[in-house]
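As a warm-up, study this chain.
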Amino acid sequence: MKLTVQLLRVDIQLQDDVFRSTATPIDLKPVGSGLTGARAILVKGKEKPPGWAGEVQDVFDVMSLVDDQQSAGVVILIERSSRVFAVTFGIGFQVIESVHIEQGFGLRVAANVIATGKIRGAQTRGIATNSRDQRTVLPKDGEFGDLDIEVDDDWMRQINGRAEDGGFASTLAGGDSLRLTVPDFRLSALPGKIDEIHAAYEKDAFKTKFPFLDQMQPLGSGDERIPALTAALKRLAQAGEVTYAAPDPFTKDEENFHHYELIIRRSRWMFADLDAREILLLLNEEAAGLNWLEDVKIAAVDIDGDLVDRIRPLFAYVVAEVELGEDRYFVTAANWFKISPDFVKQVEQAVARIPEVSGPLNLPVWDVAVLQSRAVGNHREEVYNRDLADDRGWILLDKKLARYGMNNKIEVADVLTDDGKLLCIKTASNSPALSHLVAQATVSASLWGSEPHVAMLRDAWTKMHGADEPLLRRDQAEYVLAIATEREGPLHESLYFFTKVLLANALRVVTSAGLKVALARIEMVVPPKEKKIRTRNAKSRGGVRFE
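Now compare it with the structure written out below.
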């Protein structure tokens, strides 16, 4: 039997209403003696014909022959050891309000009981990279290292595999909820199984097998620090100090995603992607007097305007770091985490070891308005790199690709200086940009000495120094991560913590290849924001129409 189990918050009682307002729960009568300390609830979905039926109806009569479809589910609430667990079937897992669910419950159980060599996959979210969720699946049972997950900047949301004790479950997957397959199981034995699960939750075996899980500690929804954190987050949002990312794999039709719609009061605005500056400008113009985090909504839709995910508050899309007292926290996918002080110390020490060469390099100012006036589209970086190479007599490598076979190609760097510095240049405008910056340097360093890499550097070095000059050696070269930022002060102090995580990883990878790495700050000048006219959209039967 397949079971999905959620642990409810410690203050939840068996008879409490924990369901979403849209649910219409129906209490089920027990059969025979039923289950001691348990209640069961039936929930039904909306009756709705298939989504395509209305389109076909325009040319063929299909509606009279298509029955309304209605999904259903059951939630069994059971109390054991003064805690309430929810065992769900069908759509039952969707109807419990997330505020009542103990976050990370299933992940902890799974991490405690999955056998070391029997891991099958994991689901992660790149915190530092501001990326979407990623699922990694192994073709057969393996070690955690086989997943190739970067544990310093990925939050592991779920892990699945086989339990050390086959009697506990044959397979299981744990995130906020726990999903397990138990052979030859009947629900009459549920109390004993819940006791086993609770005992597994209380263990700390995960600290040996997965010590990094404590680097980012989830806060329960009732944590007393959350009101202060939320207040600080509101101030950061209004100051434009947050970024945005989709919180989860979409609930349906993810492959058909087309665009986002920000919903403010009764108006909607289309965004191809979640650009933080554009969102901030829109909120300042249209959301005055609203609680941005809760009152503003985001819908992810397909090209016809149909939802590919449920409508969520803006808060669910926010990615930000918040300091509270001496501790650091971050929020992503509507979940708050405390960053372990030891992890903070480890990263800060690593980044502090990266030399900063801002003064000696003296890179020119990144003037956004000037660069944009000369750029095609939004490619300001290309203009900056070209100007820098021309002015200094250096070699432009931006967009020049070293090719490895038909489909693999890399940028060795953006600009090569006459003294062997390989400049990788980006703005600190968002996490994906900085993730790309680090990836560019680390991939290039790892391929040092390969024929395409050597050929690219040979051509560039010869153009500057002539054919008689010895080629650039590994021990002479230095990768410089040059970051344009509005923030003042030493670069390593002005960056967000999870950007520093990326830099610490770059330090490890580049130096392990026998190369040097350094940082350089580029002063950025940003023009005042101007009010822009945006297109609103309106729903129509054929989908979304933009006027």
